[in-house]
């Protein structure tokens, strides 16, 4: 039916108004959608900044002690370390003393160090050692201090990797504590490292054969507490033991690098074991994750040191 002129004008006006209204609605919808997208992007960025999607360790290292026998047990632990390195590459290994049995004879270095750890040494892993009681039986350990493969800068010394500073001690009975103790306090006080790790041969807290060292508790642990040492690593007792944090410091015995002895438990023990093993560490900005690994490549203990 043909439209009259008035009807045509009316419907034309309505159509124009409708199109205009529709355009405004689409415009508002587009602005709203854009705003929501911006908000979601902003929210995602805030979440991403607060909780990174990936977190890589700033340092990986391992520790072991009482290694230097050149016998089957040492080679088994060395092989487990090599296997671990293939999956979680590290470039630092702490040797916490008794590097050469029985009397620290440097002429045995090929059999008790260079050959067992040859695959790791060839891949650039740097070993850092301290002196054990067997090591000082020959020339008071001086040949080992001078041996390039142990990377010792003296009988006691310090070095740093990123946010971690290490302090190596001579804990032997003939150690010069009149010089070493003030040196340790000076170096700890100077350090601005987030993580401070001290290592020596003798245990401070131990449920093993040698037990707890009351003299070290008296002279060393107050410095650890004062300067926020989070971890102490030792050998001497041929076992694995990890303590809870004692006044802010975890104590870890990793002396089963070639042989084992019985170990018990104490009120502060988190885990102890009579297993040939080494300890592996992954250092993050806010924590250190510790894994105890045996010769069957099994992780038999895990612990976390909080910053």
From TrEMBL:
One Pfam family this sequence matches: Metallophos
Record's keyword terms, sorted: Hydrolase, Signal
Entry's transmembrane regions: none
InterPro entries the record matches: Calcineurin-like_PHP (IPR004843), Metallo-depent_PP-like (IPR029052), Metallophosphoesterase_PAP (IPR051558)
Top-level lineage group: Bacteria
Domain Calcineurin-like phosphoesterase: 60-240
Keyword Hydrolase: yes
Protein name: Metallophosphoesterase
Gene source species: Gloeocapsopsis crepidinum LEGE 06123
């Amino acid at each position: 039916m043909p439209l009259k002129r008035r009807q045509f004008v009316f419907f034309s006006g309505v159509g124009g108004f409708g199109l205009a209204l529709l355009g405004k609605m689409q415009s508002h919808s587009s602005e709203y959608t854009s705003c929501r997208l911006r908000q979601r992007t902003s929210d995602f960025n805030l979440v991403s900044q607060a909780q990174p999607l990936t977190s890589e360790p700033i340092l990986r290292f391992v520790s072991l002690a009482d290694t230097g026998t050149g016998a089957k047990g040492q080679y088994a632990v060395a092989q487990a370390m090599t296997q671990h390195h293939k999956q979680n590459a590290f470039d630092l290994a702490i040797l916490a003393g008794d590097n050469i049995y029985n009397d620290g004879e440097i002429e045995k270095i090929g059999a008790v160090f260079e050959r067992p750890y040859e695959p790791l040494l060839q891949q650039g892993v740097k070993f850092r050692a301290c002196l054990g009681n067997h090591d000082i039986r020959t020339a008071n350990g001086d040949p080992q201090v001078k041996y390039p493969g142990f990377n010792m800068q003296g009988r006691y010394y310090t070095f740093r990797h990123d946010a971690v500073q290490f302090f190596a001690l001579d804990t032997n009975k003939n150690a010069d504590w009149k010089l070493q103790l003030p040196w340790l306090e000076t170096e700890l006080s100077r350090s601005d490292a987030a993580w401070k790790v001290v290592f020596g041969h003798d245990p401070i807290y131990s449920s093993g054969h040698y037990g707890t060292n009351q003299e070290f508790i008296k002279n060393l642990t107050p410095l650890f507490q004062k300067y926020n040492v989070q971890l102490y690593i030792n050998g001497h007792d041929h076992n694995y033991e990890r303590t809870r944090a004692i006044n802010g410091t975890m104590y870890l015995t990793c002396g089963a690098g070639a042989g084992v002895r019985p170990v018990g438990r104490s009120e502060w023990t988190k885990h102890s074991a009579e297993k040939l093993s080494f300890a592996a560490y992954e250092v993050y900005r806010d924590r250190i994750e510790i894994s105890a690994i045996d010769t069957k490549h099994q992780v038999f203990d895990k612990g976390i040191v909080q910053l």
